[in-house]
Amino acid sequence: MAPLFASKGRVLLAVWLLCTFTPLFSQVPVNLRVDGVTGNDRVTGSTPTFCWDFDGVQTNWQIQVDDEAGFQATTHHAGSSISSVWFWDSGSQAKGSLGSDHCAVMRRVVKPGTVSMSLDQRVGTIHWRVRLQSPSGWGPWAASTLRVDQPPLMPAGLSVAGDPRETGGPVLEPAPIVPGRVWHVGPRGDDTASGGAASPFRTLSRAVSALSPGDTLLVHGGTYDENIRLVASGPSAPAGAAVSPIVVMNAPGEAPVLRAVPTGSRVALQIGSDPGAGAWVFDGLTFGGAVTQTGILLSGARNIVIRNCRWEGTLGAGATGVRVEQDSRDVRITGCQFDQALRQQVEIVGSSQVELRGNEFSGFGEGRAVLARGGSTAVTIAGNIFRDATPAQAAVDLAGGTTGTRLSRNVFARLAGGGGSAAVRVYRGGGVSMENNIFHAVQGTAIQINEQAPFGVYRNNIVSSCGQGLRFQGGASSVTGSVVDFNLFSGNGSDLDWGGASQALLDHAPSGNCLGGSGASCDPLFRDPGAGNFHLRAGSPALDAADPFTPVPEGGGTRADIGRHEAGATETDARPFPQEPQFSVADSTPRFSWSLDDLDDRVTPPGAASRQTRFQVQVDSSPAFDGVGAAPLIDSGVVDGAGEQYIVPSARALAPGSYYVRVRQWAGAGLVAGAWSDPPLRFTVQGHGAVELASATPGPDASVSVEDASQLRAELQSPQGCLDPTSVRLFVNGRDVVPELQGSSTQMRLLYRAPAGFEAGARVSVRVVAGCAGQTAALDRAYTFVVNGPAPAAPTGLRVGR
To answer: In terms of CB atoms within 10 Å, which of 105, 250, 534, 581 comes out highest?
Structure first.
């Protein structure tokens, strides 16, 4: 009988094991890949396809996508803590006919009770995992990672030099400026009329359908109750042209008001969805209406200018002023006054190259003045005033992957939102730059950097009388790779809070900062801050104290000032600040050079090396690049190629004078351009007397040993022999040093020996300034080089075979 009992025991054991450990026999996913690539580090879309392989029968699957490997991170946002999967959880519920699939598009199935997010642009690794269900139950998780392709930042090291080569370089010939017709629309008009001054149209919808490139529509005073939508591919309206935009503006001295109607979109003015809906200018319009949900909606639009807009008190608190969405590009909002408590005064979602310049924001509360989110890139917020408001969260909120945003020369004053609010908050987005801003009387935090926001630049700012100055609330994930230099802190509750992270994570040790608790006199000496006058009085420690590499506004001193206002400079809010020339060349077809700055190359471990794939260069006499009609003097168009230089074509040679140049780049497989270089670089073309940097050792972008980095050599040349030795200055890592000089007014050599040398791994910045007789800055050249570690020791123990 023993054999019988033994057989029964084996059967019972097998049944018990099957019931108890069924997951051991479930499916295990293998060969995990994203968009067809295993270990993908260049996902270009926001909703990728996840795939896996399996053997046997699969009845269901579950995918989770998160920004941390534990898939249950606690995030801090809007004053609350949430433990959840950040991006997507497909859920474990039955998926019907989809349950046997081995690929899934993100967001196809959403776990009940959760809100999924598309992958946004951010720096770092994104984690995903998948598990499978078979008739025997759920199997174990299998995990992998991916990276979202980062758009490049502003080009680095933009410079101008003479070049004797002839070139047939590409140039975009602007369309001829077409003299347009002037049309009229007024509340007492008639849509069957001709649209002339004596017989205006009645509705804006009818009027815009009659417009052609170069036309101007004068909108007369009164109220226009309609939902206006412009779609270039439809019958409602055409698109303008680059140098002949369509202009819709208030009739002189009149104030037309646009209000939506309670049916349909409830949008007063909508452009798109249509990437062909472009080259429109809207000037001097007021928006209101209790039923209006959005005043202006740009959806996939291109080349749109909104200026001098106003807002009625009839708008509800749940309305949005301007919303820019669905990959809209090259949008400028300028000269507007946002003074109503709206849901958001300006909201930017998933768009790029959006510029807010010279606007005034006040009265915002529960909403924000500016909210940028959803993977928006290359947003510029410059020359604005944010004042007299009680933000519950932030005046400017950069959330959810907003990458490469630049904030410069703004004022944030008298913001009484409480300790939990901020003037600017960055949340999960890298490469943000904040330079030459003023933060005064902010009750909460002036600049708050939450998690996942590395590689920021915080430079030349004045922070005074605030609850907190610069706070890295996200700790290491927000401090990493950042720059904190030449800021002035005065009278704050605290100046710098590193969030528990080590300062060693920064790009380099902080330098040039004036801290209120350091015993130094850091009072910026504003003229009258109570009246909103933040110009600097004589004796201010902010005068001529900014980073030495910061361009000096036209009319300023020998070095830029910290803060927004430059003593002695000509200022303008609606346009970029004009700069002093940084380069001078005798060549009418100069060469512009630059280098790629891409966040993909900074993360650890690094992804595949990025390279420039396309670029665009513009040259103009105006810093707004609209000197010829609405277009620049020279526009290369979008050029395919990895070469980071452009030579002005001989056929478009520049006459002697002063010009501005700016560049933007595309990199890797990305379809979105990086930010335009800002502020634009000013240079002069001269017929004679130029000084050139003939050679430099170590040279620009060189990679040298510690020994070779200890001596810096440079050779200057002046074809006309006017080089003034008293004008020669050398800056090393921002410090004015004294080099040895040898030579004459035609050719001069500079030699500098660093007393303590440079550490391995250091990035050394060099700036050479020289002038000719009567010219203070004929040459101003800046560049960097990298110091390598010591050479590896010679190999030992060489042998063949065993």
So the answer is: 581
Q: Residue 222, exposed/middle/buried by CB under 10 A (0-12, 13-18, 19+)?
A: middle
Q: Please give the residue range of the domain that contains residue 129.
A: 26-146
pLDDT-derived band of residue 41, with 50, 70 and 90 as boundaries? Answer: confident
**Cα–Cα nearest to 670, from 403, 333, 405, 435:** 403
| Residue 434 resides in a domain | no
Taking alpha carbons only, the member of 493, 311, 495, 350 closest to residue 429 is 350
C-alpha span between 363 and 369 (Å, rounded): 9
- Residue type at 178 in one-letter notation: V
Cross-strand bridge partners of residue 664: 616
The residue among 379, 380, 383, 377 whose CA lies nearest residue 361 is 383
* Same domain as 128, residue 108: yes
Pairing of β 88-89 and β 60-66: antiparallel
Asked if 696 and 788 sit in the same domain, the reply is yes
Of 652, 685, 718, the position where a domain reaches its end is 685
* Nearest residue to 241 (alpha-carbon basis) of 213, 220, 260, 261: 213
- What CATH number has the domain bearing residue 133? 2.60.40.10
Whether residues 672 and 748 fall in one domain:
no
> pLDDT by residue (tens digit) across 74-87?
554 444 455 678 88
How many Cβ atoms sit within 10 Å of the Cβ of residue 135? 12
The total of structural domains in the chain comes to: 3
- The predicted-structure confidence for 566-597, as pLDDT tens digits, reads as follows 998 877 655 787 898 999 888 889 999 999 99
Is residue 66 one of the residues assigned to a domain?
yes
